[in-house]
Design goal:
Length: about 475
């Protein structure tokens, strides 16, 4: 009997033999509450193993990993060097706290991150996931102003961009702007100052985004009007990933950095999704020569092997937290598995692979190859806007191409197209009615061909009816 504390017959049988795929699917439905999933409609698909850019389910079917296992896989699955790094660290120690002590592997990884990050980001705070990295930056920025010399206690507000997604913890939810993820929790959060996205149509009206000049004028007006009140501005550099791959106009990030510096506002860059090569450079902010006050990293930090996040910041900000214990300047915030040496070992080896396998040098050909396929897909009768930044692409599905009129959201065209693509050998994860193509960086040109063909077949199946 479930809930009795006694093993049931299925569990007893499982102790004697490996559960069958059917049994695993039943247990998955019965016990696992999946993220961002309506469980009343959940149809189990269990991925058992991976090799390179290919995933295999429990029935042996193969799929190209078209979403990089939720945007985090970098060098493919079962990379021999990453496997070896993980096993080597297991032979030493799997975990030890970084609250008041450390581990050689974690220290070496922090040092290496500082070496490859934009110059001036010299302090590394480890946590467990992207939301936590952003949350730490928000709290650090707030506390910094309280402890600055002189203190500026009035700086309690944040500027963010509409349709932004920064995670699911309450601080990250507060600065987020994807209504379906955030509106319900408004009573529990603070209200940021939101600017319209310079990279995507307004979801409510369908209006095109403001121009670069209009976007920067709006920002400067906000920074002037709220002078002395703003702790920081939070944004994803170059492209808003979860918004639907909203690509910002060239020069926007650089101008934001200049304006925030002019108005003495801290800049927090969320590179959880766009970092580690996704946009063509190791960090997206490097494309416009920008050094933020905080850089938030996760996902690709460990090449998709283990949960880990990092918040990088500058020495002047770090110094505001120094003093005797009695001064209570300590950053009282932390995570049990922060700085985990297993994750650090894999992250360290991933950076070595970037160097040794010339990962970034191989990106331009892949980016252009993907661009060619997107141009073809853009000609389909129910494809509206297509946006690409590096190996990140978003394909809008629309009811009317000329007006860009959307399908009724209840029809779930994006999800249906992604599910249909499975029959053609690809796993995709949509964003509403945006079909997203975002493979591991190790994807080959031939795999890009297959992935885009599967995406196109899925789109045709659910729109040309």
């Amino acid at each position: 009997m479930k809930g009795s504390g006694q093993p049931d017959s299925d569990a007893h049988a499982g102790a004697d033999a490996a559960p069958s795929p059917h049994q695993l699917a039943a247990w998955d439905t019965d016990h696992v509450w999946h993220a961002f999933t309506q469980m009343a409609q959940y149809d189990p698909l269990l991925i058992e193993r991976g090799e390179g850019c290919t995933l295999y389910d429990t029935d042996g079917r193969a799929y190209l990993d078209g979403s990089a296992s939720m945007w985090c896989n970098v060098h493919g699955h079962r990379h021999p060097r990453l496997d070896a790094a993980l096993l080597g660290q297991v032979g030493k120690i799997a975990h030890t706290t970084n609250l008041g002590l450390s581990n050689p592997t974690t220290v070496e990884f922090a040092r290496r991150l500082v070496e490859v990050a934009p110059a001036g980001l010299e302090k590394v705070f480890f946590s467990g996931d992207g939301s936590s990295a952003v949350e730490a930056a928000l709290k650090m920025a707030f506390q910094y102003w309280l402890q600055a010399n002189p203190p500026r206690e009035g700086r309690t507000r944040y500027v963010s961009i509409s349709e932004a997604y920064h995670g699911d913890t309450l601080g990250a939810v507060a600065i987020g702007g994807v209504d379906r993820f955030t509106s319900m929790f408004a009573p529990l959060t603070f209200e940021p100052i939101r600017l319209p996205s310079p990279g995507g149509r307004c979801p409510a009206s369908g209006r095109p985004p403001p121009s670069l000049l209009e976007s920067l004028t709006l920002l400067e007006n906000v920074l002037t009007t709220h002078a002395g009140q703003i702790a920081g501005m939070v944004m994803e550099p170059l492209v808003q990933a979860a918004a639907g791959i909203y690509v910002h106009p060239p020069g926007y990030l650089r101008a934001v950095r200049e304006l925030t510096r002019k108005h003495d506002v801290l800049l927090i860059l969320d590179e959880v999704a766009v970092g580690f090569g996704r946009t063509g450079t190791l960090f997206a902010c490097q494309q416009e020569g920008v050094v933020p006050d905080f850089l938030c990293l996760a996902k690709g930090l460990t090449a998709g092997y283990l949960p880990m996040a990092a918040t990088l910041t500058t020495t002047p900000i770090w110094e505001a937290f120094l003093g005797p214990f009695a001064a209570r300047r300590t950053f009282f915030h932390g995570h049990t598995y922060g700085g985990n040496p297993l994750a650090a070992a894999v992250g360290l080896e991933s950076l070595a692979i970037f160097r040794d396998e010339m990962v970034l040098e191989r990106m331009p050909a892949k980016i252009e190859h993907l661009r060619g396929h997107l141009a073809r897909i853009g000609g389909l009768p129910h494809v509206g806007d297509i946006r690409q930044c590096g190996l990140m692409a978003g394909i809008d599905l629309v009811a009317d191409k000329a007006s860009r009129r959307a399908f009724p959201w209840q029809e779930q065209r994006g999800m249906r197209a992604s599910v249909a693509a499975r029959k053609h050998g690809a796993l995709l994860r949509p964003l509403g009615d945006v079909v997203v193509i975002l493979p591991p960086l190790s994807v080959t040109l031939e795999e890009i061909d297959s992935l885009c063909a599967a995406a196109e077949a899925g789109i045709r199946e659910v729109t040309e009816v």
